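S.,

Sequence below, as promised.
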Amino acid sequence: MTTEVRVPTLGESVTEATVATWFKKPGDAVAQDEMLCELETDKVTVEVPAPAAGVLAEIVAAEGTTVGVDALLAMISEAGAAVAPAAAKPAAAAPAAAADTVDVMVPALGESVSEATVSTWFKKAGDTVAQDEMLCELETDKVSVEVPAPAAGVLAEILAPEGTTVAAGGKLAVISASGAVAAAAPAAAAAPAAAPAASGAKDIKDGPAAEKAMAEAGISRDAVTGTGRDGRATKVDVARAVAAAAAAPAAPAAAPRAPVSADDASREERVKMTRLRQTIARRLKDAQNNAAMLTTYNEVDMSAAMDLRSTYKDQFEKKHGVRLGFMSFFTKACVHALKEVPEVNAEIDGTDIVYKNYVHMGIAAGTPQGLVVPVIRDADQKSFAEIEKEIAEKGRRARDGKLSMAEMQGGSFTISNGGVYGSLMSSPILNPPQSGILGMHKIQDRAMVVNGQIVIRPMMYLALSYDHRIVDGKGAVTFLVRVKEALEDPRRLLMDL
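The prediction came back faster than expected:
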């Protein structure tokens, strides 16, 4: 029995693609959903997974072939049907333990995330591993993903070393069953020695669409940084190189790095930015470039909120099993204010304003890997206890790098608490495409004039950064005043005042 491998849907208005790379050759065993080949269209690169497990019996469309949607790419035979052709090969060509190997694959990375970087291997080739033991950690633009061992055995080969960019569904390593330990360990040890020669001998060919784009633009291959598999250039890479070349004359020359002495250089350390840090840097700069960002400030007397928390915190924790913090107060106060000033909870989409009739509250959290923003969905419908539980649970998983992409998407407004680090005042940067972010700061005793008397009050500065394209100054100030009023008299939240 054979299974056909066909060209998948390529996207709206895209009718054909070019076969850029085959990752398997006829006679190779394939697992279901294992990547067989890569297609390149005018806009995107599409990976084609195996629709069934078996043996790649025939490749119908070779590399460089232009194929239409639903065209036949290859044929997969059942594993049993491939025995006869395989027998024609010398017996020594197939390792005795081949049937005992298990592939370690890149797991699903989340919606719209197609690749990750291998940041850390916890095991090395030749090590014994238990089922579900952590093998390595992958880093995407937003989260870290741990990859467990799918089976017990020996880590026979690492195919993607640290620093390698891998696609979703790609192969990371191979595990041999316990019986193949003796054979697998020497082979794994010998692999590093053979790698340089293999990589040097490999001729990496760019996709046809990229080559055509380079020819049309008159740009050399040396000017293009390939981000595809094995460093291949894609059409998008060529477009970036062309744009960079066009912008170069107009852009001021980058300031050269100041000369350093040999002694200073020996005490410096150069570390490549992680994908998460690069994404944070890019998104923050985009927020400054794309929005008319402005910040307004106010201050709040935290006495009432602190007294209320002090009075009920023990009963609250006993009943709900979670501590009563200030974040639930601020979340509720923001929800209250957003009802009156809905444009702060809206976003711009082209020439439209999209008003959200819900509040998905982003709570910024610092982690060892960088800043992440888990989202409390439908915060406007949750109680103090529900909000506190969700903040605690997601904050814990954020620090452990366990948050999924879905849990950090779709926020409509964000709260950032720099006060936990001692910040007295700062201007938070918008979290696009949101139009508002509230910055909390350190609670500090200050002398205040109340009813003509100088008294000491626990005060906090508040900062609202907003997109002035959609939020007017009056709306921003009104929002911040409503937050202040709700915190200084929490009873207003109960009365919806």
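Residues 82-98, 179-202 have pLDDT under 50 and may be disordered.

Coffee later?
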